[in-house]
Amino acid sequence: MIKTIAVIEGDDAAPEAMQPVVQLLDSMNIGLEWVYPEVGEAAEAKTGSPFPDEARATIDNADTTFFGSSSGSSGASLMYLRWGKQTYANVRPCLHLPGCASPLANPEGIDFVIVRENLEDLYVGCEGPLEDLEPLNLRGRTIRQPVHTLGTGKYAIKAITREGTERVVRFSFELARRRHRQDPSRAPKLTCATKHNMLRGSDGFFLEVAAEIASEYDDVEFESFIVDDFACRMIRDPQALDVVVMPNLYGDILSDAAGGLVGSLGLAASGCFGDDYAYFEPAHGTAPDIAGQHIINPTAALLSATMMLEHLGFTDEARKIENAVFRVYANGQALTPDQGGTTSTEDFCTAVARAL
Questions:
Q1: Mean pLDDT value of segment 69-85
Q2: What pTM value is reported for the model?
Q3: Residue 50 scores a pLDDT above 80
Q4: Which of 56-60, 74-78, 194-198 has the weakest average pLDDT?
Q5: Residue 139, by phi and psi: left (phi above 0), alpha (psi -120 to 50) or beta?
Q6: Under 8 Å CB-to-CB from 219, ≥6 apart: which residues?
Q7: What residue spans define the domains of the chain?
Q8: How much is the CA Rg of the chain, to the nearest whole Å?
Q9: Which fold has domain 1-101+265-356?
Q10: Strands of the sheet with 278-280, listed across from one edge
Q11: Are 59 and 80 in contact (CB under 8 A)?
């Protein structure tokens, strides 16, 4: 059966990684159809909107979306893919590839996944001037005066709901089970990281709900850490981790830090999952400083594509691409500059194609 993939290449250097990856997937002739919704500046110039109805319909009619990285008006489509499609679980694998330039003395065996709650927390985007809070006369636990009298400044609302927490925690437990089925030697474990010692009403609630759900998964070990303690543990002993779940902001920051553990954000794949839709994007950003140089590492795009293929049912093809990427790194002869080599983005993808 043909699967339709909406491709949004993104901004700056992102298209330089996306284009050869799409070409490689297309060359496998496995039944993929590519459609390109027009978004961003080009769409705005033509229709007056950076995300016109036609683009939305193209995404709605596709089986999934392969998204580059946005730093401009194409971000309107990302907002739709996330909040419009309710893709609440951002899955960010952290996997050591033998041959990559990890800064750790012993990166062997790093293979964990951060699941970032993707829709709530501070990312609800509810901000404003402190004086707006005057009618509420709010006082926090740590200050005696009303918040609006602290000075001239801004506020941001951190929102954690039971519904949002339950669904991302259940997703994470099921992911731990699935990883165990795929590799029975891996003991399934879920780690929860929050700042519950200070933010008792919000992060404490996230942890409380996670602990409740843990009682339904007695086959999966459950542990929790204060998020700053977790950050230290992630660096000191990353091999001890399996699946990690955390609220939005911490997941955003620490999943990028996890990319640094294994060598580069150019290695960091990502998939965002909801109950009815999923989209996939490399986590490296748009890299405007190297745009036009064709040296952006396409590994993140390739590994995001394998997550996408697995989601679409092409599990064998996904494993073949993963194994080809592993062989290129193990060989060490065709690496991009961020990994200490001199190979271009396109030539790296050519090396992967040869390894296939």
A1: 89
A2: 0.94
A3: yes
A4: 74-78
A5: beta
A6: 177, 188
A7: 1-101+265-356, 102-108+161-262, 122-157
A8: 21
A9: Isopropylmalate Dehydrogenase (3.40.718)
A10: 32-35, 3-10, 64-69, 278-280, 271-273, 89-95, 111-117, 243-246, 189-194, 221-226
A11: yes
